Each structure stands twice: as C-alpha cells, then as structure tokens.
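Hi V.,

You were right to ask for the full record rather than a summary. Here it is.
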Amino acid sequence: DVQLQASGGGSVQAGGSLRLSCVASGIPSDSYAVGWFRQAPGKEREFVAAVTWSGGKSYYAESVKGRFTISRDNAKSTTYLQMDSLKPEDTAVYYCETTVGSTLIRGQGTQVTVSS
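Predicted structure:
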C-alpha cells in the first residue's frame, strides 16, 4: 500500500516552533513531489508548502513565507516542515500529500495548536 504518515504536531505558544515529518512508503515512483496542506475548523483546506523530488524547488503560501521551511531526506523517504514563529492562526490539522499517477495520496493528519 502507498502510505504517507505525518507526525510531529502538538501544542505550543505563539512564537514557538514545531517540526512536522511525513514518511512515505510503498510509492512505486522514485520521483515525486510532496506538499503540506492544512485545514482549520470551519475553514477550507489550504495549501501550505511543497517541495520537488530533488528538493531544488520549494513553494510556500504567502501566509507562511519566511516562517516555515520545507525540506526532504529521500534516503529516509521523509519530508519535513519546520514551522517557526508560529501564530494562533496556524492552528489546524496538517496533512502531507503526494500524487502517484492520477491518484492523490494523503496522510492521516497531525494536529497543530498554537495558543496566544
């Protein structure tokens, strides 16, 4: 089975940091981009960041630029999202996603709660 396993969420105060991890398994391709998305209660799913297979290109939502950093370690099949200077509005369930062929693969999500 193709799976993405996200972890690393938690509760922090505003200004704090967290690092999320997304471990991929069973992906038949050796070249796939990974993205992080989030969804807060009562809000639509929102793009956060994405990184190419090589890690040479990364993309960020305007709301997280300069605070979040996406990276990956392909030897470990793991993509990271380093989140610094967290704000209460970053509170959401964070998901990692990739596409295998035309199939969207989404991890189970990890909760991030930022208190003021």
